[in-house]
Write a structure and sequence with these properties.
The complex is a heterodimer of chains A (265) and B (345). In chain A, helix 1 packs parallel to helix 6, helix 3 runs parallel beside helix 8 and helix 6 crosses helix 8. Chain A has one domain. Chain A is mainly alpha-helical. Chain A has 12 helices and no strands. Chain B folds into 2 domains: 227 residues, P-loop containing nucleotide triphosphate hydrolases (Rossmann fold, 3-Layer(aba) Sandwich), CATH 3.40.50; 72 residues, Alpha-Beta Plaits (2-Layer Sandwich), CATH 3.30.70. In chain B, strands 6-7-8-3-9-10 form a 6-stranded mixed sheet, sandwiched between helices. In chain B, strand 12 and strand 13 form a beta hairpin. The chains are: A mainly alpha (265), B alpha/beta (345). At the A-B interface, helix 1, helix 4 and helix 5 of A face helix 2, helix 3 and helix 4 of B.
């Protein structure tokens, strides 16, 4: 009844790149079909830009050395990345409870690819949302260094892969108590955000806060974005930012793949 | 096609409690068989299926599926089998056709071949009109047909269906079965189908072999007809005036082939039904009537009922499957307590 010929003996060796592409394409399909769904993720950063930005300009404008937007917009982009990718595990939760995840686990699709493909997909909303934020801010006087802005977007995409992987790992680990996902996500999210110096400079904070922020990878990404937007491309802050983003991605992918391999029981 | 040897699965729930979901299942399923695994909720049906489909490793015992060991060679098992789980296979925000194309690619088809195959399956499962819609917009019956289509993309010679028709109305159940059976006979080589169900009529009507599972063990394994004849028997119901019921029951007890006799409660006219469980109802009824006549007992009505699989389950366990199906949700499986205090329902 089938016009197509099927491989009689399926090779046991799978091509991990092909598997990752299959997962990635499948994950991107709903986004590609309905790109406006990405706008939901922009409400929050735009509120911060609209309602917090002016306050910042009024109260700390001088301390920040002139252009508040060059200081604040990179932070808002990091915030958008953090918020958007840290909730992505809930998509996997949906697939776990619906049966889609189980369907995939019974196929020969590589399990690592099932995590990596999903994580790589996170780059698309991160970059798309960041571009929209930049375009929205241009009329308000934002003038970032173009190369710096491009580098920052790339760095945030890498960070998004890491945070997204961790979010997927969390969804897999707490799959038997789904509500735990939001408890952990919310508990981690705000300290990480505040200890990154996103909203207010950490230089004026107590010593313990500065110490805590030193181990927060997001802090380095935020600092890197600020240096890059200001055109300070040769700054060591940018190198640290890349290191932090890549370390987050490496740890995230490792933890995520590990969780995926154990996700059937 | 499937061979299991004393397969067991324990789930450690807490330090003091272990659930023995499957307690030594040995099965031998030949190519081309259509087997229903029947049992109440929590009997171990789904856990068994999850072991056979490589989703969970067995605690002990071995299982060979499609020629490969589920523990040492899960990748080959996965490549060979099709699986329709209890949940849905289609992502809510995915397009119906895309899900089938993705599944084809997963099994090694290139994009063009996968699209062709998706088109064939959409047609075969009556989903052509829904092909370009999102999965979330499908009705329950359409979703289930999509699940079956996803499970069949790579033409597996062995298809597992875990409670395929649960939650569907009778019309959609019949429709789903029609499709499953047609896809089975349309296959080039005999396709083996293993399904779990707690619908008695489903196992009765469609399965060629019924494996009855209870408390993690196989308690019966045969064709539905053989199970019914061997384990339950037919029911001959003789209606008589209230006063004659006891004498008629005593007479029926002595008749050849009788397994059990029960006297029903009096009806509005005072008459009672004497229910005789016997190997061959249609054959026993004339003899019972002649004997009653000779003894001067008036029988006003005769009914011969063939047994159902529920009668089989009742005969095997002393419980009705219909009741346990409801209760079972609360007391899923046999458990061992290492503490003596803990008492489980």
């Amino acid at each position: 009844m089938s016009a197509t010929t099927l491989p009689t003996a399926t090779p046991t060796r799978r091509n991990p790149l092909r598997d990752t592409r299959i997962v990635l394409v499948r994950e991107l399909a709903p986004v590609a079909r309905d790109p406006f769904s990405l706008l939901f993720g922009l409400v929050q950063p735009l509120v911060f830009l609209g309602l917090f930005g002016p306050l910042l300009a009024g109260s700390a404008g001088e301390a920040l050395g002139g252009d508040v937007w060059l200081w604040f917009v990179p932070a808002v982009l990091a915030m958008t990345t953090l918020f958007g990718t840290s909730v992505t595990g809930s998509n996997l939760q949906l697939d776990i409870s619906s049966g889609v995840h189980e369907r995939m686990l019974v196929t020969p699709l590589s399990r690592s690819a099932q995590l990596v493909g999903r994580a790589l997909k996170e780059m698309v909303p991160v970059v798309a949302q960041s571009v929209v934020v930049l375009l929205v801010m241009l009329p308000f006087g934002l003038r970032p260094d173009p190369l710096g802005a491009a580098l920052t977007l790339a760095q945030l995409a890498v960070l998004g892969v890491g945070v997204g992987s961790l979010s997927y790992a969390l969804a897999l680990v707490v799959r038997k108590q789904e509500w735990m996902f939001w408890v952990v996500q919310q508990t981690v999210l705000f300290p990480v955000m505040l200890l990154s110096g996103m909203l207010l400079p950490l230089e004026n904070g107590p010593a313990w806060m500065r110490a805590a922020s030193a181990v927060n990878p997001l802090r380095y990404v935020v600092d890197s974005g600020r240096a890059a937007f200001a055109g300070d491309i040769a700054s060591t802050a940018i190198a640290w930012g890349w290191l932090a983003a890549m370390a987050t991605a490496a740890v995230g992918l490792a933890v995520g793949v590990r969780s995926m391999l154990r996700s059937a029981e | 096609m499937i061979r299991t040897n004393v397969l067991t699965k324990d789930f450690v729930v807490s330090r003091t409690r272990t659930v023995h979901a499957v307690r030594g299942i040995s099965l031998d399923i030949q190519p081309g068989e259509l087997v229903a695994v029947l049992g109440p909720n929590g009997a171990g049906k789904t856990t068994t299926l999850r072991m056979l489909t490589t989703l969970v490793p067995p605690t002990s015992g071995t299982a060979t599926v499609a020629g490969y060991d589920v523990v040492s060679d899960p990748a080959r098992v996965r490549a060979a089998i099709g699986y329709v789980g209890q949940g849905g296979a289609g992502g809510a925000s995915q397009v119906v056709r895309d899900e089938l194309v993705t599944q084809g690619e997963i099994y090694g088809l290139d994009r063009r071949a996968a699209r062709t195959r998706a088109g064939e399956l959409l047609e075969a499962l009556d989903l052509t009109e829904q092909a370009d819609r999102k999965v979330e917009s499908l009705s329950g019956g359409q979703k289930r047909r999509l699940d079956v289509a996803v499970g069949l993309v790579h033409e597996p010679s062995l298809l597992f269906l875990d409670e395929p028709s649960t939650g569907l109305d009778p019309h959609n159940r019949a429709n789903l079965w029609e499709h499953v059976l047609r896809m089975r006979s349309a296959a080039a080589e005999p396709r083996t189908i293993v399904l779990t169900t707690h619908y008695l009529d489903e196992a009765d009507t469609f399965a060629e072999r019924v494996v009855v599972v209870d408390h993690g063990q196989v308690i019966a394994d045969d064709t539905a007809d053989a199970l019914k004849a061997d384990l339950a028997g037919d029911l001959v119901s003789l209606r008589t005036a209230g006063g004659d019921a006891a004498a008629l029951a005593a007479l029926a007890e002595r008749a050849a082939g009788t397994r059990a006799v029960q006297v029903g409660p009096p009806g509005p006219d005072g008459g009672r039904a004497v229910e005789v469980r016997t190997a061959d109802g249609p054959g026993a009824a004339p003899g019972l009537l002649r004997a009653a006549d000779a003894a001067g007992l008036a029988v006003t009505r005769v009914d011969v009922a063939r047994p159902t699989l529920d009668d089989v389950f009742l005969a095997l366990t002393g419980r009705s499957l219909r009741e346990t199906a409801v209760q079972g949700a609360d007391s899923p499986a046999d458990t061992t307590d290492t503490t003596t205090k803990e008492v489980l329902a």
